[in-house]
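Quick check before the chapter quiz. The format below is the same one you will see on the exam, so make sure you can read both the input and the output lines.
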Amino acid sequence: MVARITSGSSPAGALFYNKEKIDKEKAYLLLCQNALMPTPSDGRLDIVRAMQTFQPYLDANQRTKKMVFHVSLNPAPEDKLTDAQLSEIAQVYMEKMGYGEQPYFVFKHTDIDRDHLHIVSLRIDSEGRKLPHDFEARRSMDTLR
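Here is the expected output.
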């Protein structure tokens, strides 16, 4: 498994990116964690509800510039994992990275020859505190071992 972490200043960009993939039938919403909405059975993203989930966190801290945590988790091409296995991998990964209590959305992408995940979350907790993201790439590599 290989991870690629990116940062952003607004979760809307990451959510719209994934919604476009869903609209093109190249992805679907696999899991909503700690969100104001349940995981939809049809895999569609309600972007308004997703943003409403993040809004209290964003309102609590307007100083942090790179508040968005967006990671792509890429299994080996020969790994054929079920949605249940991918959901579990995402949850364990987020927990070990220190983002397990955060709201996050897990998308399964099918746009290339290997299925992979995108996870969108925030680096701000519900109290407005910035979560530590020092050595995030190293923690990610350790987590995936």
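If your answer matched, good. Helices lie at 11-23, 47-60, 83-97, 136-144.
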